[in-house]
Structures are given as structure tokens and as C-alpha cells.
Amino acid sequence: MARIVIVDDDLAMDLLVESLHFRGYDTYRIATAADALQQIDQIVSADLVILDIIMSWPDDRPATGLTGDRSAGMEVLREIRKRKINLPVITYTATQDASVIDAIADDKSTSFLSKWGSPSLREIRTLINQTLGFADTLALPQPFIVHGHNETAKLSLKNYLQNTLKLPEPIILHEQPSLGRTIIEKFEDYAAMSSIVFVLLTPDDIEARYDEPDDFKRRSRQNIIFELGYFLGIIGRKSGRVLLLYLPPLELPSDLSGVVYIDISQGIEAAGEKIRKEIQNVRG
Which CATH code of 1.10.3720.10, 3.40.50.10140, 3.40.50.300, 3.40.50.1100 fits the domain covering 140-279? Predict the structure, then answer.
């Protein structure tokens, strides 16, 4: 398992930490240049460093007109190079300082990625894998499981995807840290990390019309229908990346009439071959 250290004061970088964790990397973030300098020996033991440049300058280091907050990351890079000349470093930064960018270009083991280009998590992962020589790992799609109250189906699906099909650990929203976000913000962020979605349509709620109090039709939870619609809109129904797993008895939304789904009434393992066939042509 490759070990990656991220040195960046932006809390949003924890999303990258989570995304890399799902891909099987041992990843953690150091939030300041000062902390990075204190932990420099641990940093140089990593396989890859992702380094911001614009951070607060360490209080115990003298700064000149050529240094300071706009180049604190370069001080960290300098200390890294004292100890390990060939350690791969990706400088992921908003700096537009030509002298800094030129210095990075002169370091054969350091690459430059601008935050101004707003690269997606997938694009960042691509660069990381290429840097580490693991580009083929991108062939594995990142699963997201949409679920209701059926814990057995959820855990069985997670186990099948991760341990039988050897996909990255599926994203299950309630298992992830909130990091001060609202529920919808958290959902949107983790949805952006995903490339294939499994929607567990399970009979969790009882639906009764106002004029038919004894009508006990079963429906999925409202969050399932909301998230299903979100993913169909973002990823696309025809992409093959939104898979419906159906557990009867259950009333489906009329808009889904004719959409193919996988029956899991005999369990996830019994439906495993159908699930595998749907996944086999999907790439991350």
C-alpha cells in the first residue's frame, strides 16, 4: 500500500484524503508548513508528497523579501530534498509566482499542478497514479451505495463489491466524516468521488393514499428516490453506471417503467453474476 502525505492548510483537502483512502492508499494530511517541518523525517518516508506552496510561514524561521507565506511550501520542499533527493512530490498550489514555478520545473522529481485549473478529483488521482506508476488502478470504478433501512442488503452488497469483485471500498454516506458540511453538501462531495452507483431499492416505507387508508403498498425511503434521481441526472441513465437493485414487494416510481433492474430477492450473492456483468465494462 502506497503512503501519501498531503501538506496543505485547506480543510477541503480532506476530501482528497478520503478519495485516496477509498482507492487503497495510506493517506494523511498535515495542515501547516510548521507542522510539516517538525514531521519532516516522517514525510520523507512516504512514497509521495502532495505539497501546497502558499501557507503561513513558520514562526521560527527567518523570512526575507523572497520568502514568506507565498512560498512556505518551498521551504518544506527544500528540507525534503536535503533528506531524499528523488522522493516524488506534486506541488498542488494556487501560486502564480513565475520564480517559484521555474524552481519547481528545475526539480526532476517534482511536478506542478495548478489549483486555478480546478482539476477534478479523478484528474488528481490520475496524476498521482501516473507518478507512482500505478495508472492501471484507475480501471477500477469507485462504487457508491444508496440504501435505506435494510442493513443486511447494504452490508452484503458492500462485502460483495469490495471482497469478491475487489473494487475499491464502496462509499456509504453515513460512514463518512461530515467536516462541518450540511447533509446535501456532504452528499454532493462524495457523489463527485464516485464513478458507479448501486441503488438498493428496498421496501422500507408503507404508502397509503389519503382516500385509501388501507392501501399498504411498499416504497423505498425518500432519500433513496432523491439520490437515485440525482445520480441519474449527473451520471446519466444510459451510462450504465447507475445500477438498480430491487427487493420486492415494492412499488417503483412510474418514471422508471421499463428501466432494467437486478432482482436481489434471493440475496446479493445469487445476483452476483448479473452485477459483475454490468460492472465489467465500466471504467473509473
Answer: 3.40.50.10140
